[in-house]
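Illustration: Probable cell division protein WhiA.
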Amino acid sequence: MSFTTSVKEEILNLDTADKNELSAIIKMSGNLGLTQQGLTLSIITENAKIARHIYALLEQFYQIGPEIKYHQKTNLRKNRIYTVFLEQHVDKILSDLQLSDAFFGIETGIQKKILSDDDAGRSYLRGAFLSAGSIRDPESGKYQLEIFSVYLDHAQDLVQLMQKFMLDAKVIEHKHGAVTYLQKAEDIMDFLIVIGSMDAMLAFEKIKIMRETRNDVNRANNAETANIARTVSASMRTINNIIKIRDSVGLESLPLELQQIAQIRVANPDFSIQQIADSLETPLTKSGVNHRLRKINKIAEEL
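Result:
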């Protein structure tokens, strides 16, 4: 099951349905038709549970049992397309939900009362996400929530509505519509809280924390590996210089304090600076060891 599907199934199990949710669903997934008997309404979805949810909402609020039809997609995915079809009292439903415009179409923007009322806004966002929302799987590490709108003004109203809840929403226009989106993990988690999908929010947060922990561990390991590589490189350079001194003028030409450092370095190429310091007869700091190793390197370079 995709992350988007799990969020939608959680929403469907909430006991929070109201007319504002239905309004968003009809506006974003509904199509009007006209017959001799009057207006018809077709609400389209690829999710059977959402189709049953729409049926339940219409039955609950308007005591109407619509027809549910389906057909198979012809593409390789072969998904079913479900249509909740209504041919009675469509004009009354549109009027009650304040969705119809002067030309017997569906208003493209969001009502001001929904934009100004927090509870209505939450319900509307639930319906909008059920209809046309998606969330990229947080395991991918690239966070994105999108809601597709056919009309740009509706997408812009969704931005305004999300911003009411302190979400950094943006909109981008496409050839066939517009997308309202969130890209920050914190905004996506806050959106899930707004629409009441707490289980999904906790799952999202858990995945995010685990990814960040893994990244921190990887960064620490990479840093440690880099430090080891630098230490080994410096050690080999110094050992090569000590061999150069030994083969050219002999180690006995070095001052006694440098001879002891040189012997320990050659005998223990994997020793850290601290381990070299600990191996000296006379205790010395790491800084002191480094200073003497630099002296050895300088002597070798001058040969």
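Reading the tokens back as a structure: The two ends are 70 Å apart (CA to CA).
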